[in-house]
């Protein structure tokens, strides 16, 4: 149960100016291209996601953000007619190399979607346990511990600990999204990708999830897509700006938002288009 | 302006509401009239046998002894056999069509399956008589009873016609309902549900079993009840292959009889008023069983639907 006085993180509109410290890349993307049929949607993007940082991708609607991020855990190819070229190195190994099983990649790189999508026939508990059960974990003690940890990490435990058997869809929209985050985290991925995780939520729920994302960087590498620039500024240490399928600019979030190099980035963040 | 429009809107609403209520009531009245008419026309049997009609196993027009249990058993047993065969077959086909088959193949097979539903049941009866009955007699029954004959329901029988054969024919007849409806339901599972499972590291089959089938379960249950309703009432094809013997035997390979079949066979040549009334009472029982099955289906769907929908 959420208490009314629960603090919502004050928006840090001005991001820290100093350059964030980086200890290597969790995910290095090289010359990534993606197509829907003949529609070339992601064009030659190279970018790396520094370990234990939140990296945001911003850009106007339709610029290919979702498509790009779905290439990073091999979800793009589940759409009929979709195609990818280029490489994505996860701890140095190309996830698009011959013979790599996309199922194993997706277990290491979790994903949270735009609209909360809990499994409607499952309880809160079973939703969080779903990924573990897929991995063949059925021991109740292990599941109990993992479910509790996942819900703690998603900052949902206190609100649901007394009704773990209630249907996942009985929660509010914001809680459902945190449930989806818990579900993704329960399988202990190395990287968490989020595609506009707050776009379907109200400001208070958004604040909670932003706070959560900000804290997740201590344990995970996070990639987040958003078209909300304030959100990128609040949660990320690095930001990439995409326009029509190309990466226009990438750098420390502080730099991108205060002193962008490219005039198109500047036009976008000052609200002159997009 | 505004008030006049809303008043005319109210008028339309009221008219529409009244008309819908009227039609709903009309259907209720129709059902009541049907039950009443069946009950009235079976009054002699109702009076003569009372509730024992339901559990008496005698059906002897010569001695004017009538009991419905062999027919009730035959109807339920053939329907259960049909469901046991057609659920895996129909659901498996639907999953194959939606998840695995290339679009072209899927279209073609869907068309063929729908065609199955359009074949007249007397044709099924003929195919059953000329193909399935000999096959059960010479191949299926001997091999099954050789292996599982120690289980009473699989005891050997020399006939070929019987409960099990009728169940097979019924299964083929109701598979299209299960496949067609389940396919529609599976197609309606949102992409977000598929992706939720895939993103957790589910294989294709795991995605089907953890995300798709549970999401679609109330629709699938609906398709099964539709098929069951069809199986309970099917007359012609069953009559041709069930053997038409009003007895209850342990083995599913023995001949039996169903409610619909005895009505069709004996109605036009009923020897006495009591015989006629007993037959009509069987019609009444069939009608009531169908209503009960449908009611249970509604309840189940309501329960499944409630947990499925929730808040989104
Ligand atoms: N499933 C799809 N099939 C075909 N084209 C698609 C599909 N999804 C997106 N697209 C196209 O790809 C482009 C990029 O879309 P998307 O990656 O969703 O952009 P964003 O997330 O930045 O709004 C758009 O032009 C869109 O029309
Ligand atoms: Mg998008």
Question: Which structural traits does this protein have?
Answer:
heterodimer; A: alpha/beta; Rossmann fold; six-stranded mixed sheet; four-stranded antiparallel sheet; 10 strands; globular; disordered N terminus; B: 312 residues; mainly alpha; MetI-like fold; 2 strands; disordered C terminus; binds adenosine-5'-diphosphate; binds magnesium ion
Describe the structure.
The complex is a heterodimer of chains A (274) and B (312). Chain A is α/β, with parallel strands linked by helices. Chain A is 33% helix and 24% strand. Chain A is built from 10 helices and 10 strands. The radius of gyration of chain A is 18 Å and the shape is globular. The longest helix of chain A is centred in the middle third of the chain and has 14 residues, at 140-153. The model of chain A is unreliable at 1-13 (pLDDT under 50). In chain A, a hairpin with a 2-residue loop joins strand 9 and strand 10. Chain A has helices at residues 65-71, 102-108, 124-134, 140-153, 157-160, 173-186, 203-216, 229-235, 253-258, 263-269; strands spanning 25-36, 39-50, 54-58, 82-90, 93-94, 109-112, 191-195, 221-225, 238-243, 246-252. With 312 residues, chain B is mostly helical. Chain B has a single domain, classed as MetI-like (MetI-like fold, Orthogonal Bundle), CATH 1.10.3720.10. Chain B has 11 helices and 2 strands; from the N terminus they run H-H-E-E-H-H-H-H-H-H-H-H-H. A two-stranded antiparallel ribbon of chain B has the order 1-2. In chain B, strand 1 and strand 2 (65-66) form a beta hairpin. Chain B starts with a helix and ends with a helix. Classes of the chains: A alpha/beta (274), B mainly alpha (312). Residues 65-66, 195-196 of chain A line the site of magnesium ion. Residues 36, 39, 41, 59, 61-67, 79 of chain A line the site of adenosine-5'-diphosphate.
């Amino acid at each position: 149960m959420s208490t009314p006085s629960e603090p919502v993180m004050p928006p840090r509109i001005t991001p820290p100016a100093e350059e964030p410290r980086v200890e290597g890349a969790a995910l290095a993307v090289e010359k990534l291209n993606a197509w829907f049929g003949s529609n070339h949607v992601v064009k030659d993007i190279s970018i790396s996601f520094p370990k234990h940082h939140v990296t945001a991708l911003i850009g106007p609607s339709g610029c290919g953000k979702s498509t790009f991020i779905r290439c990073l855990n091999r979800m793009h190819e589940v759409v009929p007619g979709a195609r990818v070229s280029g490489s994505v190195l996860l701890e140095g190994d190309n996830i698009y190399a011959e013979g790599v099983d996309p199922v194993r990649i997706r277990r290491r790189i979790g994903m949270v979607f735009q609209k909360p999508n809990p499994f409607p026939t499952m309880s809160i508990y079973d939703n969080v346990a779903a990924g573990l059960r897929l991995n063949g974990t059925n021991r109740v003690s292990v599941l109990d511990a993992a479910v509790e940890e996942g819900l703690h990490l998603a900052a949902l435990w206190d609100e649901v600990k007394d009704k773990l058997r209630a249907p996942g869809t009985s929660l509010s929209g914001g809680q459902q999204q945190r449930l989806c985050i818990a579900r993704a985290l329960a399988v202990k991925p190395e990287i968490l990708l989020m595609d506009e995780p707050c776009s379907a939520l109200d400001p208070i729920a958004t604040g909670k999830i932003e706070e959560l994302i900000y804290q997740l960087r201590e344990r995970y590498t996070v990639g987040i897509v958003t078209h909300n620039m304030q959100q990128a500024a609040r949660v990320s240490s690095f930001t990439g700006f995409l326009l029509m399928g190309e990466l226009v600019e990438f750098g420390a979030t502080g730099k991108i938002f205060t002193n962008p190099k490219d005039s198109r980035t500047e036009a976008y963040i000052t609200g002159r288009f997009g | 302006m505004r008030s006049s429009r809303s008043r005319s809107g109210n008028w339309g609403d009221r008219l529409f509401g009244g008309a819908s209520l009227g039609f709903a009531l009309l259907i209720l009245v129709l059902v009541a009239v049907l039950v009443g008419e069946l009950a009235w026309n079976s009054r002699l049997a109702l009076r003569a046998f009372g509730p024992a009609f339901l559990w008496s196993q005698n059906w002897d027009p010569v001695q004017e002894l009538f009991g419905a249990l062999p027919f009730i058993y035959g109807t339920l047993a053939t329907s259960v056999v049909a469901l046991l065969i057609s659920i895996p077959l129909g659901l498996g086909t639907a999953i194959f069509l939606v998840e695995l088959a290339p679009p072209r193949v899927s279209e073609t097979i869907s068309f063929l399956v729908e065609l199955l539903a359009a074949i007249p049941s007397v044709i099924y009866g003929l195919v059953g008589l000329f193909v399935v009955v000999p096959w059960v007699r010479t191949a299926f029954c001997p091999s099954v009873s050789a292996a599982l004959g120690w289980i009473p329901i699989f005891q050997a029988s020399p006939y070929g016609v019987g409960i099990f054969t009728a169940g097979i024919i019924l299964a083929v007849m109701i598979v299209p309902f299960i496949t067609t409806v389940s396919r529609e339901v599976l197609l309606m599972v949102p992409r977000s549900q598929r992706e939720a499972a895939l993103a957790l590291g589910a294989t294709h089959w795991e995605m089907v079993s953890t995300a798709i089938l549970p999401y679609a379960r109330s629709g699938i249950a609906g398709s099964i009840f539709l098929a069951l309703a069809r199986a309970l009432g099917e007359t012609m094809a069953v009559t041709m292959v069930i053997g038409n013997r009003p007895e209850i035997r342990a083995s599913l390979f023995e001949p039996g009889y169903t409610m619909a079949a005895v009505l069709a066979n004996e109605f036009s040549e009923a020897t006495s008023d009591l015989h006629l009334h007993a037959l009509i009472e069987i019609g009444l029982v069939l009608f009531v069983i169908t209503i009960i099955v449908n009611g249970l289906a509604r309840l189940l769907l309501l329960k499944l639907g409630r947990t499925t929908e929730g808040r989104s």
